[in-house]
Specification:
Number of helices: 11
Helix content: 40-55%
CATH class of the largest domain: Alpha Beta
CATH architecture of the largest domain: 3-Layer(aba) Sandwich
Distance between the termini: 60 Å
Number of domains: 2
Radius of gyration: 34 Å
Structural class: alpha/beta
Amino acid sequence: MTKENFFTPLGNTKPYFKAAFEGFAGTGKTYTAALVAIGLHKKIGSKKPVAIFDTERASKFLLPLFKENKIEAVVKESRSMADLKEAMRLCREEGLSDILFIDSISHIWEGFLEAYKKKVNRTTLQFQDWGQIKPTWKTEFSDHFVNDLYHIIMTGRAGYEYENEINPDTNRREIYKSGIKMKVEGETAYEPDILVLMGRYEEILTKEKKVWREATVIKDRSTLLDGKTFRNPKYDDFAPAIDAIISDGITRPSLAERDSAELFHTEENKHKWVREKEKWLEEIENYLVTVFGAGVGGKKEKIEAIYAVFGTRAWAAVKEKNPTELEMGYHAIVKHVESIIKSKKEENKQVKP
């Protein structure tokens, strides 16, 4: 790895639209998401069908919409995470579709939790269960949602967030609604490029009752639509952000990421480190004994060899070195001693008549 290939020029390496529409029942999230899927299909000129993963067996109501726009759609009716995983694989590896429409991810999440409880033979979840549930969800769904090279549009049921505080009038702790969140694993709602909150509104005090839907953009990575609200939203309302997200895509060679696990030192790593250290200390000692002997006579030569390489005559100081230093020191001592032996042989030759 060099500075020339570690960093690369900035560019759009993921020109794929990932969006989520959340809302309570009847807010029009499925219909709006379908309009966006159809508009996106036309925008990219796809020749493949839109793949619908239907958890409510309600996709039949979208049939007139797809027929009207002359776009083919295929459907899988299921609430199984295992089935969704396969649907994503088919889009990712076999090119089934350029657009996957998941309606809704909330049912997948609920089914995922029920499947886990069935697996561990319990009716309730315990605190330690989340240590397995969340990483598995991330591996099986979230990572693919973010990284797969096709477009994904999903819907999700909305639910209220609750907090509590002490009421100054009654001096009692009371629970209140603090916001709205998607009914899914906590981090999932933050992973799309665009997150839209759908709402249903009506006027009943007028001559004719009026009903409409509104879409409020809660999050938009392109920043073009962030915070905007659209009445009876259509594809064109979201088009500026979609264009920004999918335009000017580039490809670049993928370099394998370094394994961060190497940064953690486990007990096994510690034992290995100690064994390596002991090994090289023994190698140094045994080599010096082999050359200079185990008696007092060669003690001076051994100490001088150690000093020449490590800069200390104290064996205790040598033992504080790390395995890498000791390995390098061993080879340096061998080289140093061999040079001394060679010099003595040459001196003896010169002394002889």
